[in-house]
Design goal:
Layout: E1 22-26, H1 33-44, E2 47-50, H2 51-59, H3 63-88, E3 95-98, H4 107-115, E4 119-124, H5 127-137, H6 147-161, E5 166-169, H7 175-186
Helix pairs in contact: 1-7, 2-3
This protein binds shikimate-3-phosphate.
Shikimate-3-phosphate binds at residues 29, 33, 52, 63, 100-102, 141-143.
């Protein structure tokens, strides 16, 4: 065999960039990002934050009110600022973050996460199951309308979600099982 080092690619600084101690959960409405995120954080002994909660406390109004009073474009602006703020905090080390269903479909958010070398996990389930979970939760979600609209929105976003670092299927699995699967996939040992 020849000199192996000769065949190594040129040093690419991004290869040596530190993988951040932040895990982002992405996926459509009803994917379980918040429930699984909280369980994953508990398992790892990390902190947990839901980006939608931060948006609401920064803005002093609910997601529903932001959509109703200012529209989706304004909501996306608030969402991006909240994400930027969250990731810039030193305490964001060892943190699991659940994004809202549309956040990972926004180019600026994705490039911010890429620049920070944050690993993302796409939680998925069949569309009928996602719709059923949303109905069951009974939460008001401005972008959850009828099933046909829900499906179209999911289909338009699915290719973007698939750009996440990892993909985990949630259908038929219990929350602790999904959290353990994510920890295993990421190669992080549970603390409990
Ligand atoms: C949205 C999903 C919601 C929330 C907002 C917009 C979307 O979060 O961020 O209503 O665009 O899919 P969940 O996915 O937690 O419901």
């Amino acid at each position: 065999m020849g000199n192996q080092s000769a065949s190594l690619p040129h040093a690419d600084p991004s290869v040596h960039k530190r993988i951040s101690d932040v895990i982002i959960l992405v996926g459509f409405m009803g994917a379980g990002k918040t429930t699984v995120g909280a369980e994953l954080a508990r398992l790892l002994g990390w902190s947990f934050e839901d980006l939608d909660d931060r948006i609401q406390s920064r803005e002093g109004r609910t997601i529903e009110e932001i959509f109703r009073d200012a529209g989706e474009t304004e909501f996306r602006r608030c969402e991006h600022l909240a994400l930027r703020e969250l990731l810039s905090e030193p305490e964001s080390d060892c943190r699991v973050i659940a994004l809202g269903g549309g956040a990972f479909a926004q180019e600026k958010n994705v490039s911010l996460l890429q620049d920070m070398n944050v690993r993302s996990v796409f939680l998925d389930a069949p569309i009928e199951e996602l719709f059923r979970r949303c109905q069951q939760q009974g939460l008001h979600r401005p972008l959850r309308q009828d099933e046909a609209h829900f499906r179209r929105l999911y289909e338009s976003r699915a290719p973007l979600y698939r750009a996440a670092t990892f993909h985990v299927e949630t259908n038929g699995k219990a929350v602790p099982q999904i959290a353990a699967e994510i920890a295993r996939t990421l190669g992080i040992s549970p603390s409990k």
